[in-house]
Amino acid sequence: MRDVTAPVPLTLEAVTIAIGGRPLFAPLSLTVPPGGVVTIKGASGSGKSTLLSHLCGTLAPDFTATGRASLGDSPLDGLPPEHRRMGILFQDDLLFPHLSVGGNLAFGLPAGLDRAERAGRIATALEEAGMVGFEARDPATLSGGQRARVACLRTLLAEPRALLLDEPFSKLDTALRGRFRAFVFEHARARALPTLLVTHDPSDAEAAGGPVIDLEFA
Amino acid sequence: MEATRPGQRRGWLRFAPAVTLLLFLGPVGAGLVGAVLPAFGYLPALGGDGPSLDPWRRLAAYPGTGSAVGMSLWTGLAAATLSFTLTTGFAAACHGTRLFRRMQRLFAPLLAVPHAAFALGLAFLLAPSGWLLRVLSPWATGYQWPPDIALSPDPYGLNLILALVVKETPFLFLMTLGALAQVPADRTLAVARGLGYGRATAWIKAVLPLVYRQIRLPILAVVAFSVSVVDVALLLTGSTSPTLAILIMRWANDPDLAFQFVAAAGACLQLGVALAAILAWTGGERLVARLGRRWVMDGARGGAEGAARIATALTVAVAGVGVAALAAMGVWSVARRWRWPDALPSEWSLGNWAGFSGMAGGPAATTLIVGLVAAVIGLVLVLACLEAEDRAGRRPTSRALWLLYTPLIVPQVAFLFGAQVLLLGLGLEGTWGALIWAHLLFVLPYMFLSLSEPFRRLDPRYARGALCLGAGPNRVFWRIKLPMLTRAVAIALAVGFAVSVGEYLPTVFAGGGRITTLTTEAVARAGGGDFRVIGVFAVLQAALPLIGFLLASILPGWLHRHRRGMREGL
């Protein structure tokens, strides 16, 4: 896939998030190199998902974040979410129910490509997922594994510069889970995306292979 | 280091709540001022340069003001109490049963039919020459001819109360359904029944307290509406026992312009009556809560079952009356010869429709256009307010949005009277713009009531995910939120349209007699006494909103017919 910008690392410097003046966790500093995975572990309620929504720029107004986050040399803080190019995958696939599989993928593609190019990229993506010819399908008719892969491809087609994983494997059954995890990590590595994974499952951390950080209560 | 909150945007949209509120509260306030000033003798156009208490003195001296106030309070509070009791008892006895779902399907269309159409249908049922006496005569009543009594002697306003209950029970029931979806009703009920409580007792003791908070505003709107309703009262109360709202209409239409001052004082009094009714209701709430708390904690596992069963029977009866009223006007609209006391016409004909289409065509077109325009404007404003709230987080202006409900609480008679004075002054009375705006005052709150819940309940992660895919907030709104809300938007449009079709008083005041709709025509023709003409108007008036709801229930599913995930809920 075409990517006009060279891979860059994702850096967090002393990032904290507070609600009502009370910080959720101790200041966090880390660097995820291009193609690398850093795993953040923490109990539920520790603020891991909140951290990811802060990095995407979709933090709810009740929260206040401090510290710096940047992609390479460019700071993320203050940018609206749609200009950050942070791809995110949630626990649920969140495929848009009113769009076809092809429509969901097209929503991810950047604007300014001609029609043939768009169709071509969608077809290639579906091929990578082993779902050739699924363009017109209703997402509601897909299996859980297929839905997860479409969600991942939709994120990747938006040409993100970093990937945030908000426990995207936790709702899949064990067999599917391993395969989908491999699928996601393989694609992230192929695109040299810095990947930040939050999870409470040790097997996810193990599969990711990178450093593991425990999110501590402040 | 600076705290950042990139979710907040700047743009015209953030003014939407403030602008909408101004557009609505301004005129309501001005309308009230326009009633208060003449009430204290100030109305230069009619030579009133007050301040004076003369209007109030004349109001107090008018024979019947006192009993009219009593009549308003009695009919309004009785109707609201009955409607609420029936709804609660029915929901308690039937939650989760098949009857519950069936009533839901029956009540939705009953709610869509305008008040005036119902009142006319009830008159068809209850009048001396109406269906009820036809069916009972002569075998049960002994009457060979229609009894020679006035249409409604009815000194206790029972017809009015019945009509209001027939309309308000469906409304409160559907509001209760919406509230039940927001609270963990099924689980709460399961826990309570597991503790040994009977079905209805469990519902009233454990679920009602959760639900009541959510439907309090619609209930207060029902209370305020019932004590100040005009069109239903005009159609169903006897001339000897008018409510205050009817007296105000008489004064406002009196050829002697001096009565304008009395009408203004009456409008202020009507506001007081509505406030008194609301105070009485909230006082009752406190009393019931106090006694209820003791009852909830006394451990009795049953106790409400029998009462709830009675309420269920009455609710079904009320729905039956509603259906019979609709049927009565349908039958009259195609009757040619219908001798008393035959139960059905001896000759049927579509001639009424052919004959009266010339009469009804103009008002029907006006009704359609005003309704559609008001509903579309209402939709734009409601969506703009909700989207602004979503982008900015709940801020003071959006928190103040509940003020939108003011026109539902403040009696129409009270501020429309003053608003008419205002419109006259601006030379806008009788214009389409004034008419549509007057309708919007009531269309908008109901649309907000209908759309805000689904909009706020939409899973925010869809929008967040779309933003992270690089779509701007506007694209997310048009491509994700709006299509996902297709069903809710369609229902809101149908609600707005139905409200507009049913508006009587705003049409009379803002239309200035120059623009008439099906509703004003139907009410005006009710005095004429030709049941066939009235039948045609009433059926048309009921049919328009019903078609709206039919489309709203079919179109979204058809638009998304290839998407299984869009069939339910959203």
Automatic annotation (TrEMBL), chain A:
Residues 10-218 form the ABC transporter domain. GO terms for molecular function: ATP binding; ATP hydrolysis activity. Keywords: ATP-binding, Nucleotide-binding, Transport. PROSITE patterns: ABC_TRANSPORTER_2. It comes from the Bacteria. This is ATP-binding cassette domain-containing protein. It comes from Marivibrio halodurans.
Automatic annotation (TrEMBL), chain B:
The chain crosses the membrane at residues 21-43, 73-94, 106-127, 156-180, 217-237, 257-281, 310-335, 355-388, 400-426, 432-451, 484-505, 533-559. It comes from Marivibrio halodurans. Residues 69-280, 364-552 form the ABC transmembrane type-1 domain. Keywords: Cell membrane, Membrane, Transmembrane, Transmembrane helix, Transport. The keyword Nucleotidyltransferase does not apply. It is a multi-pass membrane protein. This is ABC transporter permease. InterPro entries: MetI-like (IPR000515), MetI-like_sf (IPR035906). The keyword Metal-binding does not apply.
